[in-house]
Design goal:
The complex is a heterodimer of chains A (163) and B (194). Chain A has 163 residues and is an all-alpha fold. Chain A has 2 domains: 2-65, Rna Polymerase Sigma Factor, Chain: A (Orthogonal Bundle); 73-162, Winged helix-like DNA-binding domain superfamily/Winged helix DNA-binding domain (Arc Repressor Mutant, subunit A, Orthogonal Bundle). Helices cover 73% and strands 0% of the residues of chain A. Chain A has helices at residues 2-16, 19-35, 46-65, 73-82, 96-109, 112-122, 128-135, 139-162. The relative contact order of chain A is 0.15. Chain B is elongated, with a radius of gyration of 50 Å. Helix content of chain B is 63%, strand content 9%. The chains are: A mainly alpha (163), B alpha+beta (194). Chain A binds chain B through residues 1-2, 5-6, 9, 13, 19, 22-23, 26-27, 30-31, 34-35, 87-92, 99-100, 103-104, 107, 118-119, 121-123, 127-128, 143, 146-147, 150, 153-154, 157, and chain B through 4, 8-9, 12-13, 16, 18, 35-37, 39-40, 42-44, 46-48, 50-56, 58, 60, 63-64, 66-67, 70-71, 74.
Chain lengths: 163, 194
Amino acid sequence: MERYQRRVVGVALAVVHNQDDAIELAQETFIRAFENLAKFESRSSFSTWLYRIAANLAIDFWRREGRHVVLHGEDAENEIGKMPTSQGDSFKEVSRSELSARLKQALEELTPEHRAVILLREVEGMSYDEISDVLQCPRGTVMSRLHYARTHLRNILKDVSGS
Amino acid sequence: MAECGEIGMMLGAFEDSELEPNEMQEVAFHLARCESCAAVLADYSTLGRDLRSIAAEPSLAGFSSAVIARVDRLPQPVLARLARFLRRQADAVGSGFAWGGAVAAVAVVTIILMTPYAEQFANRGPHSTTSIANTGQEASAGANQVAQAAASEPTMADNDSHADISRLESENHSVAVWSEPRRDTTVIWLPDQP
């Protein structure tokens, strides 16, 4: 359990973005895994199976809690087109504390699917294929969600630096 | 620049090294001559670092024990409970056999080790008779005593009809032999060798 617990919490945290909820969901993940161990098939690695349970539980939790309007498929992708493009300027000059606070807020504004993708990539260091396995979506969807999340976060941070 | 939109879709994957080699090359060529896309790429890189820097590291102290406690509280299926019960019974029987075997082994070893002493102890008593004395003056003195004892053994011989002196060396008074058939014992007193 010690071997996987940190990353299981990380996966849950990537979706729900709340430590207490993430730890609770991670515990639930191990219990579900224990209960369904007989159903585990070696088509994927054990760790991927475990992270998948964590991601599913976390996404279900997020939807059940109703904290966010979730955009799916084309709806989400269309959001990219609505965003102002502010290429060219860097947000290096924004103060670190302000940037950190705004970044956390910006993450909250993302859908759990988009937040999960970018945090699994940037914080957990998962490859696109791993993310695809864990979130059970095609690799192309991982790429497009990442693009959306990065563009969204960058634009918000640009606004902070602009103001 | 016309192709910035297309390249822009690949910038993140380029940053993550998740593009095909030819696509990596294509983006790299574009970045070499497009400052705006290069700035976006730099922002993505900064964004990644910022996300890692604000990532919380939750305390996992007690995590495992909490999970195990929750697992222990789970209701168990009947078959699982039955299997656990049978396993416990088997363990108990197995440990019983193990203890019994250990006790039996200790008993056997004890008997083997103690048997000679037990026989000796049984043969000891008010009339201990099995001994070979060959210790200097004590031997001759003992032989004399034996000779005297043999001669004056009527107490034992009288009391024990099966005990009799089988032989007494008359020529060499320092050697004495007698037997006690009832106790299956032969006593020999030997003189010191010069």
